[in-house]
Amino acid sequence: MKTIPKTMTGACLPGNGTVAFKTYKIPPLKHGEVLLKIKASTICGSDIRCIYHEHLGKGPEGYQPGTIAGHEPCGQVIATGKGMRRFKEGDRVIVYHISGCGLCNDCRRGYMISCTSETFRRAYGWQRNGGMAPYMVAEEKDLVALPDALTYADGAQVACGFGTVYEGIQKIGVSGNDAVLITGLGPVGLAAAMICRAMGASCVIGVEALPERIRIAKRLILRKRSRVKLFDHVLKANADNVDAIKALTDGQGCEKAVECSAHPDARLTAVQAARKWGKIVLIGEGGLMSPEFAPSRDIIHDQKMIVGSWVTNLCQMEDLVERLVRWDIHPADLITHRFALEQAPEAYALMSSGKCGKVAVCFDEERNGQMF
Ligand SMILES: NC(=O)c1ccc[n+]([C@@H]2O[C@H](COP(=O)([O-])OP(=O)(O)OC[C@H]3O[C@@H](n4cnc5c(N)ncnc54)[C@H](O)[C@@H]3O)[C@@H](O)[C@H]2O)c1
Ligand SMILES: [Zn+2]
Ligand SMILES: [Zn+2]
Fold first, then answer.
1. Are residues 102 and 219 in the same domain?
2. Is beta strand 233-236 parallel, antiparallel or unpaired with respect to 203-208?
3. How many CB atoms lie within 10 A of CB 290?
4. What φ, ψ does residue 324 adopt, rounded to 5°?
5. Atom of ligand 1 nearest to the CA of 312
6. Is the CB of 203 under 6 A from ligand 1?
7. Is position 363 within any domain?
8. Nearest Cα residue to atom 25 of ligand 1
9. Residue 2 pLDDT grade (very low, low, confident, very high; cuts 50, 70, 90)
């Protein structure tokens, strides 16, 4: 039995572009709870969009000031409360990042993200303490087993980014038939490219605004020592993107589009560069659709389908980790920078600058993982 301290230092986000460190008690475990030793905790674009600069989020995205940040936690169970049904000390786990009531219709589908209980829906890193600390209390029902072939840094990204992308891709379906357009090549867009490629997409085209991210996207490969690049083409975001994408796809456009930027122009590009009968999934959050969007011209007469997608369900997350192993792909390959918890201010500032791929705060054996 490892010695568990009574208190720990955790990082919270005051909402003014800084990170604050506070001392938190490690509470006794209640029925159905586990204590995790956090090993990797990655930063999501939503942390920056809704919390880091300003506490913008409302409702499910409302951050409770002082809460330990981090909604992509992955670690090892080091203690358990009473009433465990499946997980035990020593297990390596990912935390599905929203704890739901378990009883509403959405929770019963496994979509705790959409839980309708105002009292019991609490997301880790938003309304209850998350992964930017050495320890975290989680509920057993929120855990997903991390396969041995995946590292903790792989698992952290499944908790939000990869899980989200996998769900969106399931909704539109991707196979070897498809040329896929991905707009916004932050960590979510890069994850989309990795999964689409693994699922056989025969052409992957990316559109991104920032030069650093274009450079990173061009270098990425599907797996170590592979010759398969994640992207066939990476375009700088501009007004000619739709024409350029059509030119790359026999004048027709892509069968599928995955929008990961939330920028109004990129949303319109995703819709217009999808071909007739094409399917588009909107994942990037916040903001508006371009005022240029003309439904009859842009989707109705071309029989296109637009779908929205919010995080994923527990069962899909379990399927995803199994498939990551089968495909032999590692989300951690998208991590360009690893930091210790004390360096969390640098980690958030870097993610906010966009001059990076995925940014991770790592502990213990994950500290020295391979860099980009
Ligand atoms: N739907 C969901 O469940 C879900 C889950 C997680 C994250 N998200 C959202 O997904 C988005 C992406 O997350 P991320 O972590 O990659 O964040 P990010 O902010 O790092 O990535 C967004 C990228 O879009 C790029 N971009 C901006 N304008 C563009 C344009 N006109 N054309 C092309 N690219 C453009 C940015 O430069 C950036 O690289 C965020 O909005 C995040 O909140 C949604
Ligand atoms: Zn997220
Ligand atoms: Zn619920």
1. no
2. parallel
3. 17
4. -60, -40
5. 3
6. no
7. yes
8. 184
9. low
Question: Mean pLDDT lowest for which of 1-5, 19-23, 316-320?
Answer: 1-5
| Total domains in the fold of the chain | 2
pLDDT, tens only, 275-298: 999 999 999 999 999 999 999 999
Residue 151 inside a domain? The answer is: no
The reply to whether 167 falls in a domain is yes
Closest to 284 in 3D by CA, of 314, 255, 257, 317:
257
DSSP secondary structure letter of residue 365: G
How sure is the predictor about 371, in pLDDT bands with cuts at 50, 70 and 90?
very low
The range of the structural domain enclosing residue 86 comes to 7-146+330-368
* Cα gap 13→295, rounded to integer Å: 40
What does the pLDDT look like over 231-265, one tens digit per residue?
Answer: 999 999 999 999 999 999 999 999 999 999 999 99
Do both 136 and 41 map to the same domain?
yes
3-state secondary structure of 103: coil
User: Are 177 and 106 contained in the same domain?
Assistant: no
Q: Are residues 221 and 193 in the same domain?
A: yes
Please report, to the nearest 10 degrees, the dihedral formed by the alpha carbons of residues 20, 164, 185, 18 taken in order: -10
Contacts of 181 (CB under 8 A, 6+ apart): 205, 206, 207, 245, 253, 254, 256, 257, 258, 269, 270, 273, 274
Give the number of whichever ligand sits closest to the CA of residue 182.
Answer: 1
Query: Does the CB atom of residue 206 touch ligand 1 within 6 A?
Result: no
Residues 225 and 345 in one domain: no
Query: The domain spanning residue 349 has which CATH number?
Result: 3.90.180.10
pTM of the model: 0.97
Check if the beta carbon of residue 364 is closer than 8 Å to that of residue 354.
no
The CA-atom distances, in angstroms, between 301 and each of 66, 254, 281, 294, 305 are 50, 16, 18, 11, 11
Q: Is the CB of 262 under 6 A from ligand 1?
A: yes
Same domain, residue pair 272 and 352: no
